[in-house]
C-alpha cells in the first residue's frame, strides 16, 4: 500500500494541473471524494478542475465548496494529471473524458473489485467500503493538506456509501476514520440532516408510485420495482431522486436480492441490484449484462424494453437465488 501511496503522493506534489473526475450518475462517494481531493490539491497551490458529467447535484449542493465541481467544458483542456475516482469502468467517466485534450498521467483510485485497473498509476482496494475511506488513508499518509471542508466531504462520501455505517463492509477502521473526521470539525447532526432529511417531496411521491409496482419472486427472496419513462415524466423526477430508494426493498424481511429497474430515454434500462447474502453475487449477475460493481451492490444498463429487461434479469436473479440455498 505505502509504495503505491508514495507514487500517488509524489505525482500530486510534482505536477501542477489536475482534472479530478468521477462516474456518471454520481453518488455521495463520487462527489464527496472529488471535492475532498480537489480541495486538498488547491490548498497545495495546484490548478484543479473538478468535473462530473452531471455537474453538482442539487441534493449534494450543501457540500463544502460544492460550486468548485462543475460540468466539463466544451473546449478540451491540457492537464498534467487526470485522477479518476470511484469509477469501475473508464467509460463511466462519461463526457468528462472528452474534455481532456492531453494528460501526462492517469491515476485510478477506486474500491470496486470489478475495476480492470485502467490508467498509469492504479490503487484499488476492494475491501474499502468507500473511495472516500481510501482518500482518508492516502492524504494524511502523504502529508497532503486536510481541513474541515475536506473532512465534511469525506464524511458524506463514507456515510452514504456505507448506508450510514450499516453495510457489512463497514469496519472498525471506518468508525475510527469517522471519529477522526468528527474531530476535524464535522457536525454529525447537521450533515446527517442535510444528507438524509432534506429530500424534495417528489422523491417520496416517486417512492409511492414505485411501491405500486412492487413485486416479489422466488418465494419472497427477490423484490423489485420499476420506474417507467411515463412515471418519471409525470412526477418530474430527476435522476438523482432515486439514490437509496432500493433500500426500501432491501429492508424487507426474507428479501435477499432487491432490484430497481429504470427505463431510460435511450432504449435501455438501468438495473440496480442489492444483495443481502455473500452467496448471491449481484456483481457477477450484472457483469453478464455488461455492468459491474460490488458483490452486494451492482448495476448495469441493459438494452430492451422495461418488460423485456425485467424478464431477463429476474430469470437470472431467481436462478442465482435458488442455487444459493
Ligand atoms: P447503483 O445501483 O447505481 O447505486 O450502483 C451500485 C454499484 O454498481 C456501484 O458501485 C456502481 O459503481 C456499480 N454500477 C452501477 N451501474 C453500473 C454500470 N452500468 N456498469 C458498471 N458498474 C455499475
Ligand atoms: Mn460511486
Question: How are the secondary structure elements laid out?
Answer:
Elements: H1 2-14, E1 17-22, H2 28-43, E2 47-51, E3 69-70, E4 77-78, E5 81-85, E6 100-102, E7 105-110, E8 121-124, H3 131-141, H4 148-161, H5 172-183, H6 188-196, H7 201-212, E9 215-217, E10 222-227, H8 229-235, H9 247-250, E11 257-263, E12 268-275, H10 282-288, E13 292-293, E14 297-303, H11 306-324
Parallel strand pairs: 1-2, 1-5, 2-3, 4-6, 5-7, 7-8, 10-11
Antiparallel strand pairs: 9-10, 11-12, 12-14, 13-14
The structure holds adenosine monophosphate (AMP) and manganese (II) ion.
Small-molecule binders: adenosine monophosphate, manganese (II) ion
Profile the largest sheet. 6 strands, parallel
Per DSSP, the total helix count is 11
C-alpha termini separation: 37 Å
Strand content: 15-25%
Low-confidence runs: none
Number of strands: 14
CA radius of gyration: 19 Å
- Give the helix proportion (percent range): 25-40%
What is the overall pLDDT average? Answer: 96
List the secondary-structure elements in sequence, H or E: HEHEEEEEEEHHHHHEEHHEEHEEH
**Structural class of the secondary structure composition?**
alpha/beta
Shape, principal axes of CA atoms: globular
Biggest sheet, spatial arrangement of strands: 3-2-1-5-7-8
Keywords:
6-stranded mixed β-sheet; 6-stranded parallel β-sheet; alpha/beta; binds adenosine monophosphate; binds manganese (II) ion
Amino acid at each position: 500500500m505505502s509504495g503505491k501511496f508514495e507514487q500517488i503522493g509524489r505525482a500530486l506534489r510534482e505536477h501542477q494541473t489536475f482534472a479530478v473526475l468521477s462516474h456518471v450518475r454520481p453518488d455521495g462517494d463520487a462527489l464527496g471524494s472529488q471535492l475532498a481531493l480537489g480541495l486538498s490539491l488547491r490548498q497545495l497551490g495546484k490548478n484543479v478542475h473538478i468535473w462530473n458529467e452531471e455537474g453538482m447535484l442539487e441534493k449534494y449542493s450543501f457540500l463544502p465548496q460544492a460550486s468548485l465541481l462543475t460540468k466539463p467544458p466544451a473546449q478540451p483542456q491540457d492537464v498534467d494529471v487526470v485522477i479518476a475516482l470511484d469509477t469501475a469502468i473508464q467509460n463511466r467517466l462519461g463526457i468528462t473524458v472528452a474534455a481532456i485534450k492531453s494528460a501526462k498521467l492517469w491515476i485510478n483510485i477506486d474500491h470496486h473489485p470489478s475495476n480492470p485497473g485502467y490508467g498509469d498509476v492504479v490503487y484499488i482496494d476492494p475491501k474499502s467500503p468507500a473511495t472516500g475511506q481510501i482518500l482518508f488513508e492516502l492524504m494524511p499518509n502523504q502529508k497532503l493538506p486536510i481541513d474541515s471542508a475536506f473532512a465534511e466531504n469525506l464524511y458524506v462520501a463514507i456515510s452514504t456509501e456505507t448506508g450510514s455505517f450499516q453495510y457489512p463492509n463497514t469496519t472498525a477502521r471506518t468508525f475510527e476514520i469517522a471519529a477522526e473526521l468528527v474531530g476535524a470539525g464535522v457536525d454529525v447532526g447537521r450533515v446527517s440532516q442535510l444528507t438524509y432529511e432534506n429530500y424534495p417531496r417528489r422523491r417520496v411521491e416517486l417512492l409511492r408510485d414505485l411501491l405500486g409496482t412492487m413485486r416479489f419472486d422466488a418465494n419472497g427472496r427477490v423484490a423489485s420495482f420499476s420506474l417507467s419513462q411515463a412515471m418519471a415524466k409525470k412526477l418530474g423526477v430527476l435522476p438523482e431522486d432515486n439514490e437509496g430508494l432500493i433500500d426500501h426493498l432491501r429492508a424487507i424481511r426474507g428479501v435477499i436480492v432487491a432490484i430497481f429497474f429504470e427505463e431510460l430515454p435511450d432504449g435501455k434500462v438501468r438495473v440496480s441490484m442489492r444483495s443481502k447474502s455473500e452467496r448471491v453475487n449481484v456483481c457477477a449477475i450484472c457483469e453478464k449484462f455488461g455492468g459491474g460493481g460490488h458483490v452486494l451492490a451492482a448495476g448495469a444498463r441493459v438494452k430492451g424494453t422495461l418488460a423485456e429487461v425485467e424478464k431477463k434479469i429476474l430469470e437470472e436473479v431467481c436462478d442465482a437465488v435458488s442455487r444459493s440455498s
